[in-house]
Amino acid sequence: MSWYFLTAMTAGVTIWCTHFIAILAYQLDAPASFHLSLTFASLIIAILGSTVGIVVAGTSGGGFRMALGGVIFGLAISAMHYTGMVAYRVQGVISWDLFYLFLSVVFATTLSVAALYLACRGGRFSALKMTGMMTAAILALHFTGMAAFQVTPLKVNSTYDNPAEYTLIALIVAGTALIIVLAALFSHFVENRTRNESIEELRKARDAAESASRAKSEFMSVLSHELRTPLTIVIGYATFMAKLKNHTSSKIGPDEIISAKHFENIGDQAELYGERIKSAGGHLLSIINDILDYTSMELNNLALNKAPFSARTLLDEVADQFQGMAREKGATLHVQSPDLTLIADRSRSLQILINLVGNALKFSKATEIHLRGRAVTDGFCFEVADNGSGIAPQNLERIFDAFTQVEDAEDRAEGGTGLGLAICKKLALGHGGDITVESTLGRGTTFTVMFPSPIAEAKAPVLSAAA
Ligand code: ADP
What is the pTM of this model? Predict the structure, then answer.
């Protein structure tokens, strides 16, 4: 709405300026002057009339309102012109040719209706077409109107020239009109830019929402698969266990005497099934824990229990946990860290490192994995670096998004929910730090976790390697 007012105001003022400058340039053979209040009234008529005309035509839509707006606009500029002419005082006898007067009003209204029609219709170059038509309306009004205005000077003075001040006034009026038009154009430009920026932001937000929703749907399918696999194992082995007695007794011959050996066999079988159920149950629990953990962090329920602990011991503990898996995968784990005491949440720090080392073993096919700790100017850094397959540059930011895995759904040999790194990021941010990644395809990946943690006592770095 404010744009209609601004457009109308600018149109009103500039049309009046055009009219007034043209009158200043009008040279008769007799002295002429201006009636101040009537001249001012003609300016007000121009502004108010164009505002009403443009607002009526523009805000309501529909052909009738548009035509009505155009008629109001045309009548307003005609009223401005003739009020201005009445304010024009010349020493002579003035007569009006009613035909031209009527014709000028008809030109002004029809051409204004056409101009507003072109503006409302939109399309290519509509603003340019409207401006052209409006200019035609103003010129037709002015020159036909001037043809209707006839003056017979009382005393003919063929050498009479308009006063030099008229030129100055004309320049001031033209300058003012120019400033107003430039200001309006500038506001239009700024508004347009801001609008385009907001549209761009909205588009980005929509794309992000769409991609989040796509990732969630994909996550749901991955999750059902992830949950089904260990559950199938649990149910399968539990079924074996339930039938273990019958199964074993069916193998015992009718004359065979039941001995301790049979109980031992049943015990061994039960132990094996129990271990498998336990491992599948543990896997299931870790998936559920990840989901619960992430959702509670999403709800800002991350409570950190900060206390002093040894960075070196923490890294050793992680390496110990992964020795078996590393051996299976043919990887060597190296720990390198000064024996520093830092203040952070130990179990959450352990969780981050377990995720990172687990990922390096699961995804990278690395043969060397380094767990490093080092003091930096404003805190402490943990690093997990591998010499594995690396991550493509376009995936580097994405891997920290929740429910995001780089591998296709069919290609997920290692399972996982795509929550590990998202949780690590939240935990690092929760400590006031951050987690970053650097990677080169085919050469390896380094994750750096930065904690702005206070540090106590620094000793020399200790090196160890375990295969
Ligand atoms: P998940 O919780 O399923 O293990 P993450 O969020 O931990 O998933 O990891 C997201 C993705 O990051 C994985 O799909 C994997 O492709 C990639 N990734 C993480 N660490 C590494 C690594 N060290 N080397 C190569 N790819 C990795």
Answer: 0.54
Which residues of 215-361 form beta strands (DSSP E)? 306-310, 332-338, 341-345
Closest ligand 1 atom number to CA of residue 423 = 6
**HSE, side-chain direction, 13 A CA sphere, residue 449:** 32
Nearest ligand 1 atom to the CA of 444 is 24
Indicate the top mutation candidate among 333, 363, 401 to test ligand 1's pocket, ranked by most ligand atoms within 8 A of CB.
363
DSSP, collapsed to helix, strand or coil, labels residue 72 as helix
Mutation probe of ligand 1 site: the residue of 389, 405, 443 with most atoms within 8 A of C-beta: 405
Q: Is the CB of 384 under 6 A from ligand 1?
A: no
Domains of the chain: 2-161 (no CATH), 215-298 (1.10.287), 307-466 (3.30.565.10)
Q: 363 in ligand 1 pocket by Cβ < 6 Å? A: yes
Whether the CB of 419 sits within 6 Å of ligand 1: yes
Helix segments in 299-416, DSSP class H? 311-329, 346-363
387 lines ligand 1 (CB under 6 A): no
pLDDT by 10s per residue, the chain, length 467 = 667 777 777 888 888 888 888 888 888 877 888 888 999 999 899 889 888 888 888 765 677 888 888 899 999 999 999 999 999 888 888 889 999 999 999 999 999 999 888 887 777 788 888 889 988 999 999 999 999 988 887 777 777 777 777 888 888 888 888 888 888 788 878 888 888 999 999 999 999 899 888 877 777 777 787 788 889 999 999 999 888 888 877 777 777 777 888 788 888 889 999 999 999 999 899 888 888 888 888 877 788 899 999 999 999 999 999 999 999 999 999 999 998 898 999 999 999 999 999 999 999 899 999 999 999 888 899 999 999 999 999 899 889 987 777 766 555 556 677 889 999 999 999 999 999 999 999 999 999 999 987 766 544 444 554 43
Strands 368-376 and 332-338: parallel
Q: Residue of the nearest CA to atom 8 in ligand 1?
A: 418
Residue 88: C-alpha distances to residues 85, 96, 133, 149 (Å): 5, 14, 27, 11
